[in-house]
């Protein structure tokens, strides 16, 4: 595996610590969690214990006080072993904590950041059955009644929902204003009128829960509006711009994991009297995968570094997410090929990685949506 040459000593140590955790605590559970479509509670506890659920939150609120880049490294390291566990950490840090850190009032930060760092899982609920790529066509509504908001509607595809205690929910509080009525609300699982609905039965990342949310006269205290009223669309755009780098990191880690498993396998599997790694035809295939993975790593790290440095990173994030998800799919597919027949079975991990790879091109903006962002960026640069 390529050494992590572009990391500082501290960053490399952090990455290695997360990877060691993933190998010791997550790896033994990967197959059973995939088969049962559930996240092992011990694995989830381990994520909190290692400080991976509040990486950027300030230390005085129980977080790690670290950088966005560190969150990206954690997502990458976990995805080498299990992309499902990786996305739990990704959504918690790059979407939920991130939104609170940026737009939360002091009281909201006080109430939620500590809990999110130590025991509460969070979810980010934008999508609905009728609004995916066209996210601002959402139908969920919020109506002011006295000292509270009352939310009605359905949210679909919500990651972590089975485990979550806090949901960032987007609903339109003033449909007459179009997308400028969209507002973000902090909804606790126990609020009246809130329920988690059916859980999806998925192709990949099966240990990560994906559920419907039911908002039936869901009562949210007025102080739980996140950011300004009618500015939810901005919160959604800005958080997803950052979250996308996390998905790039997840796909990068997945590709690295698939390549590592493949290298181990081809170096011991013999055909025609020698290991299959010794055939130049195979060596060249592996060289191409290594090149792809390296390029994905540079794109993902560059986007994350730009974000931390306060530079514009929107196009770079779209490129990183798009490219890393293509690399993950190609690498996992080639891995299955190079394992031969056993690659097609659940005896070896590459079959699962192949299934897991597919989601990278879909969530947090499909590949076509990333292409749209990149194309618009070309316009502004010409
Ligand atoms: C496992 C999983 C987890 C998810 N987690 C979350 C979550 O936590 N929170 C959340 O809010 N959402 C979540 N989502 C939803 C996800 O973000 C959407 O599925 C995604 O944005 C695509 O929307 P859609 O499914 O409605 O597809 P559609 O928008 O219907 O797209 C279908 C196809 O049409 C293409 N298309 C659409 N519009 C255009 C266009 N203008 N030009 C060219 N092509 C276009 C798309 O690229 C795609 O190929 C999750 C989804 C999945 C599957």
What is the fold's blueprint, element by element?
Layout lengths: L8 H18 L3 H7 L4 H9 L18 H14 L1 H21 L2 H13 L2 E5 L15 E5 L2 E12 L4 E9 L9 E7 L5 E6 L10 E12 L3 E2 L5 H35 L3 E2 L2 E2 L4 H29 L5 H26 L10 H8 L9 H15 L1
Parallel strand pairs: 1-4
Antiparallel strand pairs: 2-3, 3-7, 4-5, 5-8, 6-7, 9-10
This protein binds flavin-adenine dinucleotide.
What does this 3D model show about the protein?
- This protein is an alpha+beta fold and 382 residues long.
- The protein has three domains: 112 residues, Butyryl-Coa Dehydrogenase, subunit A, domain 1 (Orthogonal Bundle), CATH 1.10.540.10; 110 residues, Beta Barrel (Butyryl-CoA Dehydrogenase, subunit A, domain 2), CATH 2.40.110; 148 residues, Butyryl-CoA Dehydrogenase, subunit A, domain 3 (Up-down Bundle), CATH 1.20.140.
- The chain contains eleven helices and ten strands.
- Strands 1-4-5-8 form a four-stranded mixed beta sheet. A four-stranded antiparallel beta sheet has the order 2-3-7-6, with helices on one face. A two-stranded antiparallel sheet has the order 9-10.
- α5 packs antiparallel against α7, α7 packs antiparallel against α8 and α9 crosses α11.
- Flavin-adenine dinucleotide binds next to β1, β3 and α11.
- The site of flavin-adenine dinucleotide has 20 residues, from β1, β3 and α11.
